[in-house]
Automatic annotation (TrEMBL):
Record has Zinc-finger as a keyword: no
Domain of life: Bacteria
Cofactors: Mg(2+)
Protein known as: Dihydropteroate synthase
Length: 291
């Protein structure tokens, strides 16, 4: 069941998601146009490949497509702005009228601006709008395009992608991550952003040990107490590999188990690689909830 603490809806650009009406967590399909993402980097070598993969997700009922042009895996080296733009803007242009919401996975302010102008509905930022100009990019878009206010996903990350997995430490990972997300969401509220446009991502695998990740999954419901939809991004993550001993492309079963556990703990958005299988798992979950 969807948490009573959440807003009834989530505004995501052209789309207004009604959680009660949908009756299951939203499915956000990952569309990486990168050569080095941890699980699927380099697989989509042309725009035609990208469109075929996106069409498969759309056919299987995906709610949001999250487009990323820079890998944020542990140890990833940043890419230049123009290179990121060259990767993502043609994809946005090709998909902007596909009938599902589009999200841009970026922390660069200029990429946010260009992607929003090109037609994306959501900004998904691993830095929670802490990079120079990022907050202003989102706020300026709201001012310029009234009535088409983008969704905003704020993620927690300890340090940065190059160093985040070097001995991450917390006194209480759930409390500390929750406080960070609460503070970042409050900053948006102070700048006039409506609560129903914001979602929170505790950042599985971003500066957390296996034990930290397991504690967050076990206590995921606590993040929903903050009053915002919670995104769970666990698909194919190394935490699953450490438990199962399987490589990233062999983690489907563990990913689906994590999705169901996150749904039981009231996650509202699932960011995943395997859309058809995830949708099947959540439809079964929904049927059981409704029974």
């Amino acid at each position: 069941m969807i948490s009573k603490n959440l807003p009834a809806t989530w505004r995501c650009g052209r789309f207004l998601f009604d959680f009660a009406k949908i009756g299951r967590p939203l499915v956000m399909g990952i569309l990486n146009v990168t050569p080095d993402s941890f699980s699927d980097g380099g697989k989509l070598k042309s725009l035609s490949d990208v469109m075929q993969h996106a069409e498969l997700m759309i056919q299987n009922g995906v709610d949001i497509i999250d487009i990323g042009g820079e890998s944020t895996r542990p140890g990833a080296v940043p890419v230049l702005l123009q290179e990121e733009l060259d990767r993502v803007l043609p994809v946005i242009e090709a998909l902007k009228d596909c009938g599902v919401a589009l999200s841009i996975d970026t922390y660069k302010a200029e990429t946010m601006r260009e992607a929003l102008l090109a037609g994306v509905d959501c900004v998904n930022d691993i830095w929670a709008l802490r990079q120079d100009g990022a907050l202003e990019a989102v706020l300026d878009h709201v001012t310029a395009i009234a009535g088409n206010e983008c969704g905003i996903i704020l993620m927690h990350m300890q340090r940065d992608p190059l160093t985040m997995q070097f001995n991450p430490e917390y006194s209480d990972v759930v409390a500390e991550v929750g406080l960070f997300l609460q503070e970042r969401a409050a900053l948006l509220r102070e700048n006039g952003v409506a609560q129903d446009r914001v979602a929170l991502d505790p950042g599985f695998g971003f500066g957390k040990s296996l034990e930290h990740n397991l504690q967050m999954l076990a206590n995921l419901k606590e993040f929903t107490e903050l009053g915002y939809p919670v995104l769970a991004g666990i698909s194919r993550k190394s935490m699953l590999g450490k438990i199962t001993g399987r490589d990233s492309h062999e983690r489907l079963a563990a990913s689906l188990a994590a999705v169901v556990m996150a749904a039981d703990r009231q996650a509202a958005i699932m960011r995943v690689h395997d859309v058809p299988e995830t949708m099947d798992a959540l439809l079964l979950w929904k049927a059981v909830q409704e029974s």
